[in-house]
Design brief:
Blueprint (H helix, E strand, L loop, with lengths): L5 E5 L4 H16 L6 E6 L5 H14 L4 H11 E5 L4 H18 L5 E5 L6 H10 L9 E6 L6 H12 L7 E4 L6 H11 L2 H4 L7 E9 L8 H26 L8 H14 L8 E7 L1 E3 L2 E3 L17 E7 L9 E7 L6 E8 L20 E7 L3 E9 L7 E9 H4 L6 H11 L8 H17 L4 E4 L6 H5 L12
Parallel strand pairs: 1-2, 1-4, 2-3, 4-5, 5-6, 7-12, 8-17
Antiparallel strand pairs: 7-13, 8-11, 9-10, 11-12, 13-14, 14-15, 15-16
Amino acid sequence: MVDPHVFVILGGTGDLAARKLLPSLYRITDNGSAYPVILAVGSRPNSDDGYQRWAATALVRAGIGADDAATWARQHLLYEQVARDAASFAGLRKRIEQVESDRGLPGNRAFYLALPPAAFAPNIDNLRDCGLNDGPGWTRLVVEKPIGTDLESARSLNETVRGAFAESQVYRIDHYLGKETVQNLLNFRFTNPMFESLWNRDRIESVEIVVAEDLGIGSRAGYYDKSGALRDMVQNHLTQLLALIAMEPPNSFDAERIRNEKVKVVEAIAPIQLENVVFGQYGPGSINGEAVVGYCEEEGVAPDSTTPTFVGIKTYVNTWRWEGVPFVLRTGKRLPKRLTQIALTFREPALCFFHGVPDGCEVANNMLLITLQPDEGFSLGFNVKSPDTDTKLDAQALRFSYSDVYRRLPDAYQTLLLDVMKGDQTLFVRADEVEASWKLYQPLLDHHPAPHIYAAGTWGPAELEQGIALCGSEWMGR
């Protein structure tokens, strides 16, 4: 159940609002899940009508019919021009109160910071100073990633947030946690005893998590060259996936108890040794038969840039369940295909008499593949005897694909925005988890070596396979 409220988008004319937030809000309200008034805030002069036309155009680009987009925009969208000063935010408060009075709303408010990270703290301070951090109903603050660029900046931002909002009001959004298959990890583990009973160091030999992108940096050179793969992907997305895979079962399906268990995992990750880390940077190569330039040839990138576009890490989770089991994280740009996948490789049988059979009989490890994109689903690999042979074994798989069973999956932002409206913090990151994650990776930010060059269209530097990779890359996309 969603309470009537005003949903305020600070940065309502930006790219994030146009591409993600407005289409997601349309789908939430179009199916009757919620009926908020959406107040877009921007620094440029505009009217309600003008913004509604702009938003309708953005919705059409997202695949929504022109008539439906225009009707929805007129019904739900308002616009307020606000500068970055206390007086303008006082005007924003008056507009919100006027909208609530005109429409009989109870004073519930959500504020989404769809802004550059440098603007987070000033806007939070302005919300506090004009009294919008606490209203007659509930008040919620949504903060986009990145939450800081290192441990010090993350702590500083968290202090700013704590100075204005209680932790129960704050929703730090990582869109990976809104993906249907990520949400299903908890259900998959804890409602299927056949898997949960195997989910430990006695049965699992290794865990690998890959987030691969076939695209380069596009027009993001200004951001990416200061960030790199470690900040952009590992500290947040991959660490979130690791936490969900490795966490202990909470004693109830409660947001705080689930988040408690995730924090315990991040705090239990062993200090990462440099010899267990490989940094890479894509050079010229070919993606799907098309020649592409190397990272340092991209527009806006310095020719001598050492920013890594690939990171491979092997680490361990020092808990009773996972002691001694290697976790390998890898992510990179300009890899052969777009893929987010988790591979859990099970141990070989303690005694396997097939190893002594002649004619090359090979027993493959059972492997559970959890695919988060692009073809969401699960695949469990097992061995079968090949027909018409005495000893040859083949690796086959039991597969489940969401697209075969369900219609279109909701967009991650759609799921997360609806959770904000409901007040469900389960899929949002808590302050202590953010800081624990930055603390883990800060030594690599401080002392990482120069990246190895890998050809675009390959699975990363050769040094990865020679050093820390476990399964290699042949399993990806299986």
